[in-house]
Amino acid sequence: MPPATQEKDADTAVAPAASGKRLQPLGRGLAVPPGAAPRSAVPSVRYDLAVSGTGESLDDGVPGDEPREIFERGGASWYGIQFHQRKTANGERFDMGAMTAAHKTLPFNTRVCVRSLVNGSEVLVRVNDRGPFTPGRIIDLSRAAADRIGLTSMGIKQVALSVIDREGMRCGGQAVAAEDLQPALLPEAPTSRVRAPAPARKRVIVPPRKRR
Predict the structure, then answer these.
(1) How far apart are CA 183 and CA 90, in angstroms?
(2) Domains of the chain with CATH codes
(3) Cα distance between residue 180 and residue 47, in whole Å
(4) Which of 81, 95, 85, 78 has the alpha carbon at shortest distance from 184?
(5) What is the pLDDT of residues 60-81, one digit of tens each?
(6) pTM score over 0.70
(7) Rounded to the nearest 5 degrees, what angle is found at the Cα of 133, between the Cα atoms of 128 and 135?
């Protein structure tokens, strides 16, 4: 037998005897002992359904601030260049660079704080359109608003909506000012010209021709 093989066999034979224990296969059960506290307290999320009136609250961690009540939870999508400058449901022209959104029921000009349930980022938007009409989705954001919370790279993201209706409420780490809650001014419709009535024509009486 070659010397190298003899040394290998000798090491294999000595190692278990020196330690006194042999390697055991890993168990198939959980590594957490029975009765131990869970390592994560993250609640489960239903990604297939939109939930309204959850009764939950969001706290941005600022001392002294009141937690915001969640109005709705569900999927968020976005729309951009294909709808740019088209008319929205309230008569405005859609601007994909503005912080606006479409919602099924909230009144126009309602300010909504949209919080991503994936990364915790927030954006303040104004409702000026209707939609989305796909089950499980609760809001359609403009391209700029979707970029703010990292939505454009993921397509659809789970979010929580909070209605901002008072000055001083916070969204995205900043207090909302009074001017941010004012309704948007719609462009005035062009006034039609009033045509003046045409003057009445005078009736001219032509005498009958005399017969020769």
Answers:
(1) 12
(2) 68-181 (2.40.40.10)
(3) 32
(4) 95
(5) 655 556 678 999 999 999 998 8
(6) no
(7) 135
Beta strands in 80-203 (DSSP E): 100-102, 111-116, 122-129, 137-142, 157-164, 170-171, 174-175
DSSP 90: T
The alpha-carbon radius of gyration of the chain (Å, integer) is 35
Rounded CA-CA distance 132/79 in Å is: 10
HSE-CB of 99 using CA atoms within 13 angstroms: 13
User: Dmax over Cα atoms in the chain, in whole Å?
Assistant: 157
Three-state DSSP class for residue 115: strand
Report the candidate in 102, 88, 83 with the shortest Cα–Cα distance to residue 187.
Answer: 88
Phi, psi angle pair for 191, to nearest 5°: -75, 135
Using a pLDDT cut of 90, give the percent of the chain over it.
40
pLDDT for the residue 179: 87
